[in-house]
Amino acid sequence: MRALKTRDKKRLKKLCKAVSVMLMIVIAFFAYIEFKIEPSIMDLTEIKAQTLATEAINTAVDRVIEELKFTYDELAEIRYTDSNTISSISTNTVNVNKLKSGVSLEVQNQLDKLQHKEFNYYLGDISGFELLNGMGPVLSVQLYFSSSIETEIINSLESAGINQTQSTLEIRVKAEVFLTSDEEYPNVVIETNVPVAQTLIVGELPTYMYRSW
After folding, report:
1. Is residue 130 in some structural domain?
2. Does some domain include residue 82?
3. What's the CA gap between 185 and 165, in Å, rounded?
4. What does pTM read for this prediction?
5. Domain count, the chain
6. 176: alpha, beta or left, given left = phi > 0 and alpha = psi -120 to 50?
7. What count of Cα atoms within 13 Å lies in the side-chain half-sphere of residue 42?
8. What domain range includes position 168?
9. Is residue 167 situated within a structural domain?
10. Is 124 contained in some domain?
11. What are 198-212's pLDDT values in tens digits?
12. DSSP 17-56
């Protein structure tokens, strides 16, 4: 009977040791994910999300421009002095605001479609060992993709010859995208310029010219 009890105690000790080792392995695994794997996953997710958001913004802007079909003269007015010198370039506030609000709304609609988009990664792909690529459990990251959007119209002037200047109106879209609802991860700022309309201005540009936007 004593020998049986002693044998049972040894088995219990071995079982406790095995459980302790397994527990340590599990803790080490999750610590590795927390401090090594998770930052790598978020870096990859940020790159992919930035690409998706940029494509969504460009799609939205192209769609609104195609829908409104504003010409340069419908967005801006060039004013000349009596000596044929350009005095100013001012915008059509109503049309510019319509363009900006349309772009902001459509950009938000496009970004909303990315809500809850999920990226899957094999643990082996981000382990740093090429032999483990495509292997291991799948880790999933779901995007929160909240955003704030700012738009503005800018005018770039470029010489196109003697007394000729090409004026290009562009809409600048700045989107601040929050990838997750966790404040621990930084937001991504995406800024892109898309040409809206352009024209060739004939006349001398002054050193200083007033442009009202």
Report:
1. no
2. yes
3. 45
4. 0.68
5. 1
6. beta
7. 17
8. 2-114+143-212
9. yes
10. no
11. 888 876 665 544 444
12. HHHHHHHHHHHHHHHHIIIIIHHHHHHHHHHHHHHHHHHH
